[in-house]
Amino acid sequence: MDSIMARQDINRSFEMAVFAAVVEAGAFSAAARRLELTPSAVSKLVNRLEARLGTRLLQRSTRQLHTTPEGDTFYVQCKRILDDINSAEREAAQGAAPRGRLRINCFVPFGVHYLLPILPEFSERYPDIMLDVVVSDAVVDLLEDRTDIAIRTGRLKESNLVARKLGEDCMIVAAAPAYLARHGTPRTPQELSTHKLLGFNFRHQKEAWPFRDGLGGHIEITPQGEILVSDGESMRQLALAGMGLGRFMSQHVREDIAQGRLVPLLEDYSTGDGEIVHAVFMGPGLQVPARVRVMLDYLLEKVKLSRPC
């Protein structure tokens, strides 16, 4: 029974490799040459795969070959599985030494203030790991983007992701002294309606700014879109330039406040809400490659992000 299951697993991985080759080559004949098989053998393998899955993965015509929506999804998953198999074999053959490409996606403030400064030491420790770092506040799909680790704030929604908490930080509303000199200092959250509030030009987890209303309740103020930015560091730069009020993780603007470049506002109305920062990766049930595992451990060792709210 075990030998039968082993043969099935081998056939499945081979079918995935053949299907991926067909998608990448754009034709059965080109994939066959790449795999050193006959076009008919490649066609039969894909047909068998579609029959087993009970869905069509490729749309065929006399001149063109296209993936169906199901085929697109399956191709991305196949590449992930095949990459994991290759990685596992390389690690086993090389004594599980961490190596290979490591793709990390993180939001801009974290990248600028935490991740990028600690990467030189990481590269010294693990010279065989090739770093591929994307710094962006846009949330990516780890599977589709081929990302190994993403640094995110807020609650984890995807059930197929595993999270390691790196820390948490309070949120602060702040503005430059020059802005406050021109427009006045808001004394209550309600007065924010007369001020320029910096917002994001993408869907953010927390669009509204929460405050206590001073009467035992809460109030939320939402930036109206007068000035929108793509990331937290751009918001900080515009706030420093006196363009408006921004809402930041406290550690992001800690030095600016200490040096008087920004002034914290409405602290008496703070709800004490904060942002939890996680390192997320694919799971559960998937093998975590050594290159991913050592980076997760390194982040927990080096990142000191904790300010009780």
Give structural notes.
- Helices cover 40% and strands 23% of the residues.
- The protein is α/β, with parallel strands linked by helices.
- Strands 3, 4, 5, 6, 11, 12, 13 and 14 form an 8-stranded mixed beta sheet that branches. The chain has a two-stranded antiparallel sheet with strand order 1-2.
- Helix 1 (2-25) crosses helix 2 (28-35) and helix 2 crosses helix 3.
- It is elongated and about 75 Å long.
The N- to C-terminal Cα distance equals: 57 Å
CATH superfamily of the largest domain: Periplasmic binding protein-like II
Low-confidence stretches are 1-10
Oligomer: single chain
The largest pleated sheet is described as: 8 strands, mixed
List the helices and strands and how they pair.
Layout: H1 2-25, H2 28-35, H3 39-53, E1 58-60, E2 65-67, H4 69-93, E3 100-106, H5 108-125, E4 129-135, E5 149-153, E6 161-175, H6 177-183, E7 198-200, E8 209-212, E9 218-221, E10 227-229, H7 232-240, E11 246-249, H8 254-258, E12 263-265, E13 274-282, H9 290-302, E14 305-306
Parallel strand pairs: 3-4, 3-5, 6-14, 7-10
Antiparallel strand pairs: 1-2, 5-13, 6-11, 6-12, 6-13, 8-9
Short structural summary:
Helix content is 40%, strand content 23%. The chain has helices at 2-25, 28-35, 39-53, 69-93, 108-125, 177-183, 232-240, 254-258, 290-302, and strands spanning 58-60, 65-67, 100-106, 129-135, 149-153, 161-175, 198-200, 209-212, 218-221, 227-229, 246-249, 263-265, 274-282, 305-306.
Relevant terms:
309 residues; alpha/beta; Arc Repressor Mutant, subunit A; D-Maltodextrin-Binding Protein, domain 2; 3 domains; two-stranded antiparallel sheet
